[in-house]
């Protein structure tokens, strides 16, 4: 009987040791986004008093690449659900629902009066 350890087990053990030592990190928020067309994220942000500074587009995902499904005006009150990054991991986006029209979608945070939600959306698409 051989006492050799299979190479696959050696590689797996080495990778586990690197993760445990912090040399390899788990997926970070920078590697996640909300894909175009996915269902709305959960409503986990309970803050209020949100609105836009100017008319902005609602999109079906956290990216300018995603379809524009309407506009939101500064006179509309917004219910925040949570935020995600764009596919490049650069800009943050908040999922909002207009209190007046009930329309929901993603708005890039620089278009919101308070720079968007502070609650991270769970279960984002990993890049």
Automatic annotation (TrEMBL):
Annotated keywords: Signal
Domain of life: Bacteria
Signal peptide: 1-25
Name of the featured protein: SH3 domain-containing protein
Organism per entry: Micromonospora luteifusca
